[in-house]
Here is the input.
Amino acid sequence: MGTQTVAKIPVVDFSNEDCLKPGTSSWLSISKSICHALEELGCFVAILPGKVSPELHNTFFGTLGELFDFPTEIKVQSSFEKPYPSGYITPNAACEGLAIGYATDPEDTRKFTHHFWPEGHDSFREGADLYAKVMEELDQVVTRMVFESYGVEKYHDDHIQSIVHTYRFNQYKEFNKTGIDEGLPAHTDKTFSTTLYQNHVKGLEIYSKDNEWISVDPLPSSFIFLAGDGFQLRKISQPKINIKASFDIPDNWNILLMFGALNKRGTPLVIKLDNCPHIRENKSPRQGQDSK
Here is the structure.
């Protein structure tokens, strides 16, 4: 267990199994680090070694490449009528996404898989299920730590029951292929929390309360935990903080996973954080620095 700093973004190392056991000294130490990171910046990088083998990772992201290679009409037909994001999402020509509405429900993943591969595709389905499991476990551990730290642990079980996790795969195209320098406009994240896996794509930046952009370098076996609109621990009233992503996109590594926790009742228990992030997929470094 340990906490490092990479480009000023807090990094929390979960490699010690004791830090996942409630009540241990490692658990309490990690909890303190996480609460501080969320209060100060609204996010942190989580190191989770050994959760996904390199072989499964490479195979799964290979299948995601196949997924986005399907004709647009096939991808559009994957959309379903649900209260949560599901199917094809295209904010602009530089970014396209595909979402599974109930990420932790194997049946929903099976239906999504069947739409694209009627004969089935075990590598995609197994990879999607495993990444969803890892991200769900991280989300539950982090929220439990925060609830305990702020004395509202009795509400955590109810919170877990009220949450549905959505899954989104985003593919970003190179600037010189689209002429578009912004993947998504700045916005607040409407989830309770979001977990990102960048897949070696460098570019996520956090706009801090000190009015500076802080770059997040993808580390091996790392995920990024972001507090959403419903997850704000507010000690004092402060403005929300922007987050963007200026992706430098190499070939074959241009797909990002987003795992969001949404409240299915429509009336979430809200714990306000000092600094609520916004997410923005922004211009390529070829276009120079953004103005602040």
User: Anything to note?
Assistant: Confidence is low (pLDDT under 50) at residues 235-241, 245-253, 266-292.
